[in-house]
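Table S2 (continued). Query chain:
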Amino acid sequence: MNPEIVELQSITVIGFTTRHATPNVKFMHDIPAYWETVNMNYWEPLTRLHNVFNKSKHCEYTICFDIDPLTGEFTYLLGVGVDNPEDLSKIELDMYEMKTPGGLYAKFTTPLVEGSKYVQSIRETWKEIFDHWLPASAYEFDEKRYDFEYYDERDHNKNGMQQMDICIPIQKR
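Corresponding output:
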């Protein structure tokens, strides 16, 4: 795994939050395997968000935060990046706004795979990051910031293939 080490600016993500619970969740990287057990409707909220924030770049973010390691409860944000000032005035009452802090990140791109293998490739990438890359790297996870998943046009199953990015906040050891 060779991530791109990048300095990211603060990102405004606007979307919808839901609260979930599953055993053994202590960090974001514990969560991807959980999604195969959840029947969530992603299309309606994402379509609504893209229609409202239509002047911003087309991309989606998922961020898990407020993780309680004792209960396995966490808040899941499904949102879109809002980078156009005109769109910021369109936030609706039931939407959640999060500004992620900028800083140094390791950006991992999942393998380009067929749609049927996509969830598994995301899960395996998370596992590889935390089981192998991070412990062997010159970096450690920066607990003051959030890791997140980033989806753009590569995620839209064109030609039956999909890919996305996982961004991990890091700092030198």
